[in-house]
Amino acid sequence: xxxxxxxxxxxxxxxxxxxxxxxxxxxxxxxxxxxxxxxxxxxxxxxxxxxxxxxxxxxxxxxxxxxxxxxxxxxxxxxxxxxxxxxxxxxxxxxxxxxxxxxxxxxxxxxxxxxxxxxxxxxxxxxxxxxxxxxxxxxxxxxxxxxxxxxxxxxx
Length: 156
What we know:
Number of domains: 1
Strand order of the largest sheet: 1-3-2
Strand content: 5-15%
Helix content: 40-55%
Oligomer: single chain
Shape: flat
Number of helices: 8
């Protein structure tokens, strides 16, 4: 990650921050009409630890890139070659919905609402208005008091 970070310019950072602020602004406009956004935490059932990249080979390539970084900007090469997209797509595809909270800085929480057939948790995410964590905690508290987070509720 340090290798990639060193390959970015201040202009690159400014462009990224502009995109993040635009996402935050647009989501804020949506939340003027609605109290919160309800969505899955992840788009697919959970995967076992170690299934997502980096694979052993990807890890070796990244370490080699760090060693080869003398005189060659391997971070820029990683971006321009498409390696970053290749490595990040499987992971980002699994956390698609959580990115909105991360990028916008809006309060968000994941709540357990069930179990997969393999016994792994299934979550629901609430994303709230800026500085309105209280509403999210209130909804989660109501769901907990209603017994929605118990093992019996998951087995229905």
